[in-house]
């Protein structure tokens, strides 16, 4: 039996919906478990990313930590896959790009209706927010895309089986969706 | 460019398919006609092609560069390719540029999932990512309009809304402002929608390919693909525009114009598109009998028994003490069953159609007995406007009452294809667009027409169709500049201008409205017809006159009313001018008011009259003051529940398709009248709708066959003197 394909996943500035969609593969997960090994992921115990064949990235690049994790992932993987609209197009997090970073922080921490006296957190442990949210293709080279908000389990299954077959997935009309 | 069948035929090859068309057509038009698909975004069939989005690029052999097929005229022998690899690459680049230029967040957008043409094109072109950097421009959202939202973030500057607003609605509220990369759709002079000249027709929303313009009332209530579409007819005015009603479950989601309709070609006004969605009025849902001030719900059978008991007693004593009024908003079948019941079965001569005077004065102008149906034959239909080069509005304000017709007028004026003359005693919506706009003293239209005839008589370029005797000329000569100015309040200069403009026009059309009809003076119409004869504008036996009337089925209702009147030998001039005018308190005992979903403004004196009745039945969809004195209240279906037919502005009969089942199984109005009739005739079964329609059709055909078109030349050419109104003196 051939060695299993090593896969790592991360989520950056996203809602984890794409990972949930991955879990929606249901019994197909069993089939995939025979072919791939998820060596690091938010949904498994190991968070540290070792060198892998395929790196799957959910979410947009919203802060410095996202950027660091993404750059690390790029180094560790052979094929980098952007999953979901945030990773592919910057998506919903990028709706803040029309505003100044300071205004966005104020809105969240100071001007929020539920906040009486608020301040913007300043700590070395809190990663710095980027001025503009970026799609991951604007930070690193991306090899394949699985658009959708979230992509359906069928989309993810299609993309993974295509990748396992050695092809970059191309999206036929009727399958591609941005919502 | 419209397809012109008379121009020479050409043949070209598109994607190795032999295609044929006509000279003057674009490559895209010929491809569409021959079933070859070329993707488009900024192209809309009803608008002038602009070639701004470049989606429709094609390669033509022998041409150096790809060309936009929507703007390139086709030529004989052209070899066109629309789907080469090069073009596919270009299209995908164009799409990526469009997506990267503004803030398109599909998961957040109401149009996503089938209703967005931009998104559909991205799917079609397999755009799974965007290679260009996003600009993330800081753009605004204008939600100040009551019906829709303009979100610049989603705009691709295809200018479909701009062209629609200009070419179809004819107001040009929208335009493209600013330059190059900063270009934006602007409302008037970059104002909020709520402070603009917008007429709220919603055409821009229907035209928008993305979510840049979307309806507030229908958003997030169901995507087009999740809705059921029922084609029907708008019942807000007498034009009879085709509509597409989108529903989901028991909800009205959206109304769009039906492009296949010959009346409106897909265009609608705010009354047709939005007002029905805003209607949340409470309804009358069950028959009720009012007893000592308390309204008690009864079954249909009991309520109708109660009515027929009273009717039977009165019929035996004096059938003419029974009065009945019906709204011209009702279907042909309802009017027919109503008139059949009250006139033929009850035998009263006091069954009336509201507002029938709107036709009657015109009918009498033709001064021949039994010519009423021919009036409808002779009157021009709405399509006449499309050929006219001079539109004269007399006492009409289509911008308020018949808005789709107003947009047709405006677009003719905007395209400089016609002149507009407005003669009114009040301000009207189209005043600003008029070439000549005069405000005359109320009721002096006749004097103005006589002055115009008098002017034409002395004009060397007159094209008059009748030779007038000297004495008659003398009579018209009395309409001197001084007299005309004094009576009408219009300066002589203006009257001369009007005369010149009409006599220069090839095909003038006179559109009259309530302002003329309410004067209830047949001689006024006679004078109008004579003026038209004088200026030599009667073509093919049709008068270039078009009437705007109240009531969705004004045209159909009038014809049936006339026909039924003939059947019982009633006097054709016996019409009710004002609502309840004929109700004579001394002998009237019983009044049946069939209002349906027509919401008429009742005056105090109307309500007072209703109070004087011994017995008042009100059949209505909505509660109103009319219920104050009602003895029996009957519910009525509303527009989206109705079955039957209505007449439209083109003089055709159109079938209504019910969008929903009637609430509480409220019967159709015609069924109620048929049920009442059964209580008198002893018939066991009621006619079905098909049988009723067949019977109506049979009577109509026989009726129409009796009348030849009116001979206009038989109308005496007289110089009718009109009263000088108080203001004129």
Tell me what the structure shows.
The complex is a heterodimer of chains A (179) and B (729). Chain A is an alpha/beta fold. Chain A has 6 helices and 7 strands; from the N terminus they run E-H-H-E-E-E-H-E-H-H-E-E-H. Chain A has a single domain, classed as Rossmann fold (3-Layer(aba) Sandwich), CATH 3.40.50. Helix content of chain A is 30%, strand content 21%. In chain A, the strands form 2 sheets. In chain A, strands 2-1-3-5-7 form a 5-stranded parallel β-sheet, sandwiched between helices. Chain B is an alpha/beta fold and 729 residues long. Helix content of chain B is 32%, strand content 17%. Chain B contains 23 helices and 27 strands. In chain B, the strands form 7 sheets. In chain B, strands 15-14-25-24-23-16-17 form a 7-stranded mixed β-sheet. A 5-stranded mixed β-sheet of chain B has the order 2-1-5-3-4, covered by helices on one side. Chain B has a 5-stranded parallel β-sheet with strand order 20-19-18-21-22, with helices on both faces. In chain B, helix 10 (357-365) crosses helix 11. The longest helix of chain B has 18 residues, at 300-317. Chain B is globular and about 90 Å long. Classes of the chains: A alpha/beta (179), B alpha/beta (729). At the A-B interface, helix 4 of A face helix 3 of B.
Give a topology summary:
The complex is a heterodimer of chains A (179) and B (729).
Chain A: E1 5-11, H1 17-23, H2 28-33, E2 36-40, E3 52-58, E4 61-63, H3 64-76, E5 77-83, H4 84-89, H5 101-110, E6 129-134, E7 144-146, H6 153-164
Parallel strand pairs in A: 1-2, 1-3, 3-5, 5-7
Antiparallel strand pairs in A: 4-6
Chain B: E1 9-14, E2 17-22, H1 27-33, E3 57-60, E4 67-68, E5 79-81, H2 85-101, H3 117-124, E6 141-142, E7 148-151, H4 160-168, E8 174-177, E9 184-187, H5 203-207, E10 213-215, E11 228-233, E12 242-248, E13 251-257, H6 270-273, H7 275-278, E14 288-291, E15 294-297, H8 300-317, E16 322-326, H9 332-346, E17 351-353, H10 357-365, H11 372-378, E18 390-394, H12 398-401, H13 403-414, E19 419-424, E20 436-439, H14 445-457, H15 470-477, H16 481-488, H17 492-504, E21 508-512, H18 514-517, H19 522-534, E22 545-547, H20 554-567, E23 590-596, H21 604-611, E24 615-620, E25 632-635, E26 644-647, E27 653-656, H22 669-681, H23 689-705
Parallel strand pairs in B: 1-5, 16-17, 16-23, 18-19, 18-21, 19-20, 21-22, 23-24, 24-25
Antiparallel strand pairs in B: 1-2, 3-4, 3-5, 6-7, 7-10, 8-9, 11-12, 12-13, 14-15, 14-25, 26-27
């Amino acid at each position: 039996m051939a060695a299993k394909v090593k896969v790592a996943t991360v989520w950056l500035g996203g809602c984890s919906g794409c990972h949930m969609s991955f879990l929606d593969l249901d019994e197909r997960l069993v089939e995939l478990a025979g072919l791939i090994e998820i060596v690091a992921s938010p949904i498994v115990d190991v968070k540290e990313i070792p060198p892998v064949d395929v790196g799957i990235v959910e979410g947009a690049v919203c802060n410095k930590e996202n950027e660091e994790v993404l750059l690390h992932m790029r180094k560790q993987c052979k094929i980098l896959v952007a999953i979901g609209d945030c990773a592919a197009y910057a998506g919903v997090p990028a709706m803040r790009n029309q505003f100044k970073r300071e205004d966005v922080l104020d809105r969240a921490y100071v001007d929020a209706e539920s906040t009486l006296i608020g301040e913007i957190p300043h700590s070395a442990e809190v990663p710095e927010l980027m001025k503009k949210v970026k799609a991951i293709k604007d930070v690193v080279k991306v090899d394949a895309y699985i658009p959708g908000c979230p992509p359906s389990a069928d989309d993810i299954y299609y993309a993974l089986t295509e990748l396992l077959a050695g092809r970059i997935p191309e999206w036929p009309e009727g399958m591609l969706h941005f919502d | 460019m419209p397809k012109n069948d008379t121009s020479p035929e050409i043949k070209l090859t598109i994607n190795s398919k032999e295609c044929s068309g006509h000279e003057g057509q674009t490559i895209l038009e010929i491809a569409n006609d021959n079933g070859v698909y070329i993707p488009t975004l900024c192209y809309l069939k009803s608008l002038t092609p602009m070639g701004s989005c470049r989606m429709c690029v094609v390669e033509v052999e022998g041409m150096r560069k790809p060309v936009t097929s929507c703007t390139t005229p086709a030529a004989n022998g052209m070899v066109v390719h629309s789907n080469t690899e090069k073009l596919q690459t270009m299209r995908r680049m164009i799409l990526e540029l469009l997506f990267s230029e503004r803030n398109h967040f599909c998961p957040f957008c109401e149009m996503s999932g089938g209703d967005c043409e931009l998104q559909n094109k991205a799917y079609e072109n397999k755009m799974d990512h965007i290679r260009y950097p996003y600009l993330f421009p800081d753009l605004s959202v204008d939600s100040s309009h009551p019906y829709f939202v303009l979100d610049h973030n989603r705009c691709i500057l295809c200018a479909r809304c701009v062209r629609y607003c200009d070419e179809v609605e004819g107001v040009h509220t929208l335009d493209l402002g600013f330059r190059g990369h900063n270009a934006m759709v602007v409302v008037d002079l970059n104002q909020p929608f709520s402070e603009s000249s917008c007429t709220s027709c919603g055409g821009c929303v229907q035209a928008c390919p993305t979510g840049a313009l979307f309806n507030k009332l229908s958003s997030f209530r169901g995507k087009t693909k999740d809705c059921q579409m029922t084609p029907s007819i708008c019942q807000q005015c007498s034009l009879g525009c085709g509509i597409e009603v989108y529903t989901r479950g028991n909800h009205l989601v959206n109304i769009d114009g039906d492009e296949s309709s010959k009346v409106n070609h897909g265009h609608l006004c705010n009354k047709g598109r939005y007002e029905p969605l805003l209607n949340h009025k409470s309804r009358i849902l069950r028959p009720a009998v009012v007893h000592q001030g308390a309204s008690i719900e009864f079954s249909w059978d009991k309520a109708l028994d109660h009515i027929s008991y009273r009717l039977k007693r009165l019929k035996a004593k004096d059938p003419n003490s029974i009065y009945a009024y019906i709204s011209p908003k009702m279907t042909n079948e309802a009017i027919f069953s109503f008139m059949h019941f009250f006139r033929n079965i009850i035998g009263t001569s006091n069954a009336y159609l509201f507002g029938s005077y709107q036709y009657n004065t015109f009918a009498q102008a033709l001064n021949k007995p039994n010519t009423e149906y021919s009036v409808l034959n002779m009157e021009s239909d709405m399509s006449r406007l499309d050929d006219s080069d001079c539109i004269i509005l007399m006492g009409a304000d289509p911008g308020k009452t018949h808005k789709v017709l107003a947009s047709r007028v405006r677009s003719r004026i905007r395209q400089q294809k016609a002149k507009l003359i407005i003669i009114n005693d009040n301000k009207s919506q189209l005043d600003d667009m008029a070439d000549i706009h005069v405000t005359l003293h109320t009721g002096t239209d006749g004097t103005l027409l006589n002055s115009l005839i008098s002017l034409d008589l002395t004009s060397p370029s007159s094209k008059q169709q009748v030779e007038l005797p000297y004495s008659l000329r003398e009579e018209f000569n009395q309409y001197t500049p001084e007299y005309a100015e004094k009576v009408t309040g219009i300066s002589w200069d203006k009257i001369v201008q009007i005369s010149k403009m009409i006599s220069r026009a090839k095909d003038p059309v006179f559109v009259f409205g309530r302002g003329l009809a309410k004067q209830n003076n047949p001689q006024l119409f006679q004078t109008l017809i004579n003026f038209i004869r004088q200026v030599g504008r009667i073509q093919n036996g049709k008068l270039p006159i078009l009437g705007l009337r109240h009531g969705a089925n004004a045209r159909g209702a009038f014809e049936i009313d006339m026909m039924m009147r003939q059947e019982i030998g009633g006097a054709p001039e016996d019409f009710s001018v004002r609502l309840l005018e004929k109700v004579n308190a001394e002998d009237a005992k019983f009044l049946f008011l069939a209002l349906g979903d027509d919401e008429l403004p009742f005056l105090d004196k109307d309500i007072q009259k209703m109070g004087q009745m011994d017995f008042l039945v009100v059949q209505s969809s909505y509660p109103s003051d009319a219920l104050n004195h009602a003895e029996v209240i009957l519910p009525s279906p509303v527009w989206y529940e109705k079955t039957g037919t209505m007449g439209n502005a083109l003089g055709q009969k159109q079938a209504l398709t019910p969008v929903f089942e009637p609430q509480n199984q409220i019967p159709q109005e015609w069924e109620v009248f048929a049920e009442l009739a059964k209580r008198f005739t002893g018939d066991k079964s009621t006619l079905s709708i098909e049988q009723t329609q067949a019977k109506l059709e049979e009577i109509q055909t026989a009726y129409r066959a009796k009348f030849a078109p009116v001979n206009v030349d038989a109308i005496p050419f007289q110089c009718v003197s009109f009263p000088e109104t108080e203001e004129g003196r």
